[in-house]
Amino acid sequence: METPTSSLLSLALVLGFSFVLATSVNVHDNFIQCLTSHSQNTASISNVIYTPNNSSYSSVLEFSIQNPRFMSPATPKPLVIITPLHESHIQVAINCSRKHGMQIRVRSGGHDYEGFSYVSDAPFFVLDLINLRSISVDVQNSSAWVQAGATIGELYYRTAENSKTLGFPAGVCPTVGVGGHFSGGGYGLMLRKFGLAVDNVIDAHIIDVSGRILDRESMGEDLFWAIRGGGGGSFGVITAWKIKLVPVPSTVTVFTVPKTIEQNATMLVHRWQYIADKFDEDLFVRIILRVINSREEGKKTIQASFNSLFLGEADKLLPLMQKDFPELGLMRADCLEMSWIESILYFAGFPSGASLDVLLDRTPLTRRSFKAKSDYVKEPISKIGLEGIWRRFYEEEAAAAEMILSPYGGKMNEIPESETPFPHRAGNIYKIQHLVYWDEEGIDASIRHIDWIRRLYSYMTPYVSKSPRAAYLNYRDLDIGVNSNKSTTSYAQASIWGIKYFMNNFNRLVHVKAMVDPTNFFKNEQSIPPVLPWWKKRGN
């Protein structure tokens, strides 16, 4: 029998849900009306607005969701999706969202590891930049303007289309959008030669909270500094980047040499830690660790794949490897010579002989649920420590797990940690990306696999950077801290995760945020707060 108290509680819950639903509907309707009434061309903006009542809504939303764990029915969905055709649409969207209390999420390629570009607990809309992806290559000046909705695959393709001797040091996955990739740093296989993607950005266009379109000169050096590694989503909507293209040789050499535990993988990984950051800057050798079936029936083993890009021909590479890493036993037969643009296809996992046109396809080769974390290593991990990692990879949930070890050294050691917000420079031997994938649907599968990677991360604590335990912004990880879901974000709460991503650069990012977005309009679970600690406010 239902008690009066339980009846009142049930009524309160129903009324509360109805109020939230009605509020969301009102916000949605008012926002749509604002968009159409304030647009210079009502028909133009109407064609790029999608609501849940629109037959194309689901396909537009899901097209750029790269992590299926954020596609469940329980995942909050945007009230509106806008796919702007030009910057005026973005200006109207910002002004209307400020007026009607809609939170904005900006999506370039949809690869945010925690789904920030298309998920929010507050009423929100997605500004999907998929239509803003023009690329203009200036071969004579070795530069290019790239709109934020372009993918790095499209950038690589257009660069190679215009020049066989120019490239760009960005990431491996061609479907990643340049908007988020550049604003978080942008790792690639040429980082030891040319640094990160963001180290090669020379101008940008951003639309600020007031709807102004700013370039480097008009935004000022503080804001230009902040968006090059501090995450663009905290400061405005970045619509385009001007980048410095870099010289690449006509021939590069790649190799992938897999070694199992039975083939001395433990010794080789241990040895690699002492030399990988000291190789010639033209040579990048990373390690991809995973579990595979052993030759023994029913048993598993660990495979370490030594995966490399060398900016030159094999005849020059082989003596370097023989001198610095003879233990690997690299042979001429292991080496493949090709053009730089062909190496992009190789590392992206496309089959040999694939057309370069695949770089224009925004659909990834695979789309699996995953959780990721990051670490930085300053001292080599002992063989005993490595063997502890292997034991964890033998667990059931690690069937599709990976650890990717990417070496530092070269150019990364030369750039000061305060040059951009991205601080992880000299003093690091290599970076780790921890990944676990799964295909099963449902919350239980997600919980099991996420719990596994958290246990691995805990195990790694003694072997990685400390005070803080550093992390990479583009490998977004909510486990390291989140902002309050209240309207204001405290400095103390944000600094928990902020110092891990940005270290000593966090305070300057807060200063910039306070200058350009003092009301904290551009916010998410890990956005920069516009508030300083009390001792900074007093000038102490």
Question: What spatial form do the alpha-carbon principal axes imply?
Answer: globular
Strands of the widest sheet, in order across it, are 15-12-14-13-17-18-16
Mean pLDDT: 93
Tell me which oligomeric state these chains represent: single chain
Low-pLDDT windows of residues? 1-22
Can you count the helices? Answer: 18
Helix content: 25-40%
Q: What features would you highlight for this structure?
A:
540 residues, alpha+beta, seven-stranded antiparallel beta sheet, five-stranded antiparallel beta sheet, 18 helices, 18 strands, 19% strand, globular, disordered N terminus
Can you summarize this structure?
The chain is of the alpha+beta class and 540 residues long. Helices cover 34% and strands 19% of the residues. It has a seven-stranded antiparallel β-sheet with strand order 15-12-14-13-17-18-16. Strands 5-6-10-8-9 form a five-stranded antiparallel β-sheet.
What's the topology here?
Elements: H1 4-38, H2 42-46, E1 49-50, H3 57-63, E2 80-82, H4 87-100, E3 103-107, E4 124-128, E5 135-138, E6 143-147, H5 152-162, E7 166-167, H6 178-184, H7 191-194, E8 201-207, E9 213-214, H8 216-219, H9 221-227, E10 237-244, E11 246-247, E12 252-260, H10 265-275, E13 283-293, E14 300-310, H11 314-324, E15 336-338, H12 340-348, E16 369-377, H13 383-393, E17 401-407, H14 411-414, E18 430-438, H15 443-459, H16 491-502, H17 506-516, H18 534-537
Parallel strand pairs: 2-4, 3-4
Antiparallel strand pairs: 1-2, 5-6, 6-10, 7-11, 8-9, 8-10, 12-14, 12-15, 13-14, 13-17, 16-18, 17-18
Helix pairs in contact: 1-4
